[in-house]
Structure formats: structure tokens, C-alpha cells
Amino acid sequence: MSVVTRAFRQQIDEGILDHAAGLFARHGYPLTSIRAVADAVGLSKPGLLHRFPSKEALREAVVRRSQELQRDVYSQVHDMPPGPERDRAVIETVVDQAQAHPGLLSLTLGFHTLLETDARDAPGGDTRILIEAFGSGPEPEPERLLRITAAFSAVSMLVLAAHRAGKPSAWRPHIVAIACDSFGHPHP
Hints:
This protein is mainly alpha-helical. The chain contains ten helices and no strands. Helices cover 72% and strands 0% of the residues. It starts with a helix and ends in a 7-residue tail after the last helix. 37% of the residues are buried.
């Protein structure tokens, strides 16, 4: 298979995963049908099933991609000391990812996923690594967890609003500032 064909297929799969994640976030996994995902990406149901042989295979691919994005956030900040600079770097990375993958990040960043008693069973997969990106450890203090959840909720809602308004780049600095305000850090 040529490099161009492989890249094109990967781009198609990324689009499918992002749309599926967005539908899972909006309607819940049980209420999202393969037909709804296929319609959202402009494929026939058999065409979608050719790429992902079952709804469960699609869900697993969504969770796997979500976890890859979370690990990417962590890898970009893990060497930084905890504090305002690291918090801002996490937020900026998450905002950039959310703008590129709004469906995946709306599923991952849904406030309910961060407060699940067992994060591994959350719809967006295990979000502990994303929480740990802030340098708070796997189980931060309740106030810190609430601040992280507030920041992610703001990012999720505002990035989707920016997409709907057609202004993701223009709104980016404001989204970052609002999410950072959740931590109470002074602005740079």
C-alpha cells in the first residue's frame, strides 16, 4: 500500500473515530447506532463495518485513540514541575487537541468521565493519565480535582462553541485563559 493511500485511510479512520466519539458523548454509547455513525461520516453501514467490524470494535478504537491523545498530553508536560506553567501547558495542549478532534475530546473531557468512581469504565476510557498530566498524582485533593474538572469542562464546551461559530483560532487564547482561571493562577 502506498504512503499516500495509507495516510488517506488513516485520515478517514480519524474522522470516523472523531464523529463516533462525538455521537457517543452526545447520545451515549448504548443509544448510538452504527447507522448513525455511518450517516455522520457519509458512509454506508456496510462501508463502516468494513473498517470497524462491530460497534464494540468502533468503541474500542475510540477509547484507544482517546488514550493516545491523553498520553500525548502527558508526554509533553511530564518533565515540567507542578505549578501554573505546567497547568497552562496542559490546557494549551488539550485545547489544540480539542480543536483538531472535537468529538474525541468532548467524550474524553465530559465532566462525568473525570468524576467516575472507576475511571477505567468511563465512556472516554481511563482519564487518570490526563488528570496526572497536571502533576497532581493519580488521586488529587478534592479541590484540585474539581478545578481540573472545571477547566476541562470549560475547554470542552468552549471549543465546541468556537467550532460552531467558525472561530476556533480566534477564540483559542480566550479559551485557554478561561480554563486557566479555574486554577486561580495569575495571568502571564
